[in-house]
Automatic annotation (TrEMBL):
Name of encoding gene: fliL
Biological process annotations from GO: bacterial-type flagellum-dependent swarming motility; chemotaxis
Protein name, per record: Flagellar protein FliL
Membrane topology, from the record: Single-pass membrane protein
Transmembrane segments: 27-50
Role: Controls the rotational direction of flagella during chemotaxis.
Principal place of residence: membrane
Assigned keywords, A-Z: Cell inner membrane, Cell membrane, Cell projection, Chemotaxis, Cilium, Flagellar rotation, Flagellum, Membrane, Transmembrane, Transmembrane helix
Start and end residues of each stretch annotated as Disordered: 1-20
Organism: Stutzerimonas kunmingensis
Amino acid sequence: MAKKQAPPTVPPTGPEAEPAGKGKLKLILVIVVAMLVAVGLSIGGTLYFMNKGGDLGDDKAEEAATTASGKQPAIYEVLMPAFVVNFSNKGRQRYMQVSIALMSRDQAALDALKVHMPLLRNRLVMLFSSQDFEALKTPVGKEMLRQQATASVQELAQKEIGKLAVEQVLFTNFVLQ
């Protein structure tokens, strides 16, 4: 009994040559690459148009803000170190720590005021140490102290440099103990 031998198989050539698994893998790879390119182009186009329009818009918005309100942008000068003063309250020693920032719209006037910083700090320390602890515990008392500090700094600026260099004194940190 003779067994039949099958003719030798020749590997197919052409489109039928690839197994089904490799064809699907290539298709998925092409789709993923196409999606990545589309997302990249979308992000790139968005950034290009936002940046292009943003530069012109920022300049126009800044000019409009200064001309419409007539004011320059605010400049802040933080006074370091923070003020720490002590005062007596009903025989008990109390402490206050205040961090201050000066708000101005004129950098030249603010720089001129920096020359008189020891005098300014002295005025503020004297003002802070003369306060009543009970009044400072309330928000109204803190706001009154801020307004007094603003008036004191403006008075010093007017006297020393001839103009109001500081628009407001701002408390950035306020601790009572």
